[in-house]
Amino acid sequence: MIIGMSTATFTLLHVIISLIGIFTGLVVAAGLWTGKRLDTWTGIFLLTTVLTSVTGFMFPGPVDPARVVGVISLVVLAIAILAFYVYHVAGAWRWIYVTTALISLYLNCFVAVVQSFLKIPALHALAPKGNEPPFVAAQVTLMLAFIVIGVVCVRRFHPTGQGAAYA
């Protein structure tokens, strides 16, 4: 039992929160790519991504790579939240927000790829140990995609300039 739920129910809740975080993060990233500030989507993304890490810590077990990613994610999210809500993405906080928001999304996607290779039989068969070429290729491709997305978003996202939109 975890916070009054069976482990299976809590795991399902954690996965649903994670998927909402990834989906809303992709919407936010699309907004950043097009130079639009999407406040409602951003709030949901940041909240569900924080909840993803927090609920991840509730699973029993020792400190492992997943918990280390969770700690890193929470630190990066704290900076993103400060940049967005306290400093209103003004000045240098604009690129700090874009970078930290995208790192947070990347970490969620990174874990999703890891979990996919662990839980989906066809992927697990390709990389049972998690260090085989298909797994490495998937993670390298993901990282390269996020680097490109990050560079483009930092260049395009200027919420106080032309093209700013609030939703």
What global shape is seen? Answer: globular
Instruction: Report strand %.
Output: under 5%
Order of helices and strands: HHHHHH
- Low-pLDDT runs of 5+ residues are 161-167
Cα-atom radius of gyration: 17 Å
First CA to last CA: what distance? Answer: 39 Å
Biggest beta-sheet profile = none
Total strands: the figure is: 0
Q: Strand pairing plus helix content: what structural class?
A: mainly alpha
Overall pLDDT: 93
What features would you highlight for this structure?
6 helices; 167 residues; mainly alpha; 75% helix
Helix and strand layout, with pairings?
Layout lengths: L6 H27 L5 H19 L7 H22 L6 H27 L1 H6 L6 H24 L11
Helix pairs in contact: 1-2, 1-4, 2-3, 3-4, 4-6
Characterise this structure.
By secondary structure, the chain is mainly α. The chain is 75% helix and 0% strand. It has six helices and no strands. The protein has helices spanning 7-33, 39-57, 65-86, 93-119, 121-126, 133-156. The longest helix has 27 residues, at 7-33.
Summed up:
With 167 residues, this protein is mostly helical. Helices cover 75% and strands 0% of the residues. The termini are far apart.
